[in-house]
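Write out this protein's structure.
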Amino acid sequence: MTLGSWRAVAGTLFSLFCSVGLLTHCARRAAIASPQPSPGVPHAATAADGQTLPPPARPSATVLAYGEVARRIREASLADKGAFQRLSELSDEIGPRLSGSPALERAVIWAKQTFVADGQERVTVEPVRVPHWVRGGQSVAILSPFVRPLDVLTLGGSVATPAAGVTAELMVVSTFDELEMRKAEVSGKIVLFDHVMRREGDAGTNYGEAIPYRTTGAARAARFGAAAVLVRSLTARSLGAPHTGSMRYIDPQAKKIAAAAISVESAELLHRLVARGDRVTLRVALSPRTLPDVDSANVSAEIRGRELPDEVVLIGAHLDSWDVGQGAQDDGAGVATVVQSLSTLRALGLRPRRTIRAVLFTNEENGARGAAQYASDHLSERHVAAFEMDSGSGAPIGFTTDGEQPFLTEAREIATLLTPIAASTVSPGFAGEDVLALKLTGTPLFGVLVDTEHYFDVHHSAADTLDKVDPEHLEKAVTALATMAFVIADRAGAWTSAPVSAVPLPLLLAPSAPALPPAAAPPAAVLHAPSHAAAPPLPALPIEPSPTHP
């Protein structure tokens, strides 16, 4: 889930805020000395023509103070295959992890056991009640002008069709404006939203432009009497696989119709048939079920701060995935990077001034209940920064911040420590859904920025498997996240961003999610281990950056 998909979390967070008042591997010890400034002083150079060039810019005091630490993190991360190994365990051995599934329960247990084996402190399983939607059977077929089955994936949260399915004439539109203009033609038809996701430009932005057709297309078409909705899969490159994802019924009182995604190729075929004047008849049969909420959990672990343990830098990713593929890109790569980042810091014996807390959130994909529960349980704590990785396993580029922030210049200075891996960009953008609620307390938010050129090729599809992941990219992502999180957790000063009174609701969605019930106990299997597993303490390793650049 990325840029535009944050819309699905807003309704849940809004209801939570209103109901609970949230508005107001084995460790290797290695002692290190305080980082020393890099040797040498910048000096003037001579150009080929004999002219004296100005000296290069001197690194900031923060960069000089943390250069040695950054080097050690980088060398350790790039030499360790741990992140890919963890991702292999999660993807190959556990597989797809939709909320409510036994696989997600196994993933919770795996996460807890992995943190404990790494010797992390305060390994905690925090209960969350999550929705339980089951896909069931799914089929779409052309009945005329010829007979042909089409590959299909029901959209998450969709209701079922009648048992016999829906047989009706097809109507194709490309935009919501076209739907509105042709609303008199909609009644009784199956509507296909054939909105093309652009290939040029930023992939996340293009996804954000296309996602409303998936999330709200059914609700919009139902207002005009549509019998069912199909949506062109949200990808700019396709090899025949449909891509699923969440949808929402905006008005709980309005008629609900079934919705599914078909492949780009199928959408193109149907559009061609209609464009040449054929009367196309389809049969859509979907049998998903929404069952009562079930128990799940967020899993967290920490390296406690040596001086300010109650101040927290959060690094997070989501443990759940859709029920197709393996969830390797979304968001197994993020999970593996977060777990390995904390493991690398502990193995190096790095204990920062503040606490670094890794959080693996449950239920990001179809409810964001893990994020909401974390906010309910922890929003009163002092979060100094929050990082999220949920954009796949592409080569890391740097970080996004939550919009233009006063600390942006300093964050960019710190990120220059990542120049050796070409991940020094820091730019305004969307940080992530699971950390979104921390805006309420003015917590600076960061997203791990990676190359997403091919992310949406496999996103939410059966093609989201481990073979698409480059282990070297994971190693660099660990380098970037561990470095940035450590420096921000250790620097003398703390940044803030302006707190907001509420997480802003997206314009296309209404706050229709129910208020969250009190969280129940986690699954029984999870309770076999203690909820807090203490690790031997790391030695206090004072690292004092320059007071002029805290």
